[in-house]
Records
---
Amino acid sequence: MSKVELGKDRRITPDMTVLDVIDRYRNTESIFRKYDEQAGVCICCQALFETIGDVAAKYELDLDHFLSDLEDAISP
Amino acid sequence: MKEINCRNMACPQPVLTTKKALEEIEQGEFILIVDNPSARDNVERFAQSQGAVVDVEKKGKDFFLHIQKKGTCNLAGSIQKAEKVVVYINSYLFGVGEEALGAILMRSFLKTLLDLKPIPSKLIFVNSGVRLTTEGSEVIESLKAMSEKGVEILSCGTCLDFYGLKEKLKIGVISNMFDIAQSLLEADRLIKP
């Protein structure tokens, strides 16, 4: 069985979909656009229903940085 | 019929607009217009995941998505808000005891659910319950029949990942703890076999 890292006190966790995150936290949309270049695709267009974890794995993004950037975008 | 113009909107705005439009109506229909295939696919997929019927027509370079949200009628024919019955399945076995018996009972339970009223609004599969919605499950046909009746079928993404079944989902959608927790809280009745 695969080992799964669960989010600790984060509001945004790897198992949330891109759509979930943007719907709840509109400020994160710019973060996803920022990662489009690294991913090589428009994440919001091509991976809207995929989880953050899957997007990171599929497009070889650093998951921790990705999550941190998303969290920073919604921090007061 | 109401038309919503989502031309020149970058993803995911068309989907968010669709979400808002669906939330504003109990039942009804509208036409949402987009101008690119990604938006068309995403809106169609989202609307269908919410139980709406979607027809797509191409006109020139635009896509017209006719989205119909179904309501619920009682026997007298008037529209009533459907009671949200959520079935929470946290194991592929029904009851505690012998595995073979538990599997038989779960098959029987899901088949019986099809014939009873009220029909659940959602089935949520977590932990080893995700074995029922993935390749090799013996209840896929029962679940398909429920899905065709408008029942939403959610499988926990973390659980699918844990069991190495993410690529083997056969019915329903991959969900997350936020949606699962929200569904449980919003349920009028929660059934846990």
Note: The two ends of chain B are 43 Å apart (CA to CA).
---
Amino acid sequence: MTGAPSRSAALHLKLSFATPALNTAMANLWRPEGLTRRYGRYLRTMHEVIRASVPLMELAARRCAELGPDDPVAGPLAAYLAEHIEEERGHDDWLLADLAAAGLDPRGPLRQQPPPVVARLVGPQYYWIEHFHPVALLGYITVLESNAPAPWLAEQLAADTGLPGAAFQTVSHHAVLDTGHSAELARFIDRLPLDPAQETAIAVSALHTVNAATELFNRIALGDLNTPSRAERTPDQ
Amino acid sequence: MTTPDPRTIAVLAAAGFPVDVLTDEQLQVFATLSEEELTLLLDIKSRLDDVEPEVQAHGSVAGGALF
């Protein structure tokens, strides 16, 4: 590398130290042993996560509108979000269709409260959008877009589970759709007139997202979404 | 931006991050980590360290799971 890295390159460099933990959790999630049952848990849990994606971006866009033209980041961020909202709309319904194709109840995820481990992943974004700056959401989006399913994953999962191909439409579609999103977002971050606090906010949001997603996938892999986390335990537990 | 702090690199090295392979420009990125960024990286590393080495090795073919 020559010269100081771009903002997005610095962000991805920081993430390169974080992603081995997330990659290990995802590899453990997809191990063939017991995958059929675990895949159902994954679909239900991802619906709990992904059904917040468009509402999060809509909230961030509303905050951009409130910040108005005096905030040099708000205008371009609102334009980016408007486009990305339409790209992501309805993807939570794909997960419900996958559940039905897998022979599972597609209404299941809507009947129960999402566990704290899901709230720890998604919830901070609401707080940072409302109480700091909506640009923090770009860290969350960066991590989600950078860890999209590989092109071979859907076929591998179908082979390992014996479930019909129709049960893997979300994974299959995102292997195609998310191509290029990450590079586009990196270029957008580099164009934004961020101040140092906003740049750090994106990185903190991204690193928190890796941390929480790692915990989430570790829990799904263990089949245990409700045991208190390390932070929630009392010292004698 | 946070003022560069060489102690941050030492903390990362002690935690097992591969700082020895970084260029000077890359080291500068990590030397200016905020306290929150450093705390998160250390927490994430501890999650990886909780996993057996043979399971860690599987992470090279993770497959992705987010969107």
Note: Residues 196-222 of chain A form the longest helix (27 residues).
